[in-house]
């Protein structure tokens, strides 16, 4: 979560201006889409449900009240769900 301002800016530009729709449609392995519904950086409604729907084997896991940085701030919950998905 640390880096230079220019690198962060370039990353945000790339993600915000690139349409990954067709790429998501080609993924054939199971994918767990995890997203907090209180993400102030990437709006939930505009990302997670749409991504999961485009994936052939997408599973959406929504976390009520979790923020953008949920892998860090909510690691105990996230890690349990990740491990369960990997073992399934």
Key features of this structure:
two-stranded parallel ribbon; 88 residues; globular; 2 strands; alpha+beta
Description of the structure:
The chain has 88 residues and is of the alpha+beta class. The protein contains 5 helices and 2 strands, in the order ααβαβαα. It has a two-stranded parallel sheet. The longest helix has 13 residues, at 5-17. The model has no long low-confidence stretch (mean pLDDT 94).
In percent terms, what proportion of residues is strand? Answer: 5-15%
Order of helices and strands: HHEHEHH
On the 0 to 100 scale, the average pLDDT is: 94
Q: Cα distance, first to last residue? A: 30 Å
Shape: globular
The Rg value, from CA coordinates, equals: 14 Å
Number of strands: 2
Strand order of the largest sheet: 1-2
SS content category: alpha+beta
What are the low-pLDDT stretches, counting only 5+ consecutive residues below 50? none
Q: Main β-sheet, in a few words?
A: 2 strands, parallel
Classify the helix fraction into a percent range: 40-55%
Tally the helices: what do you get? 5
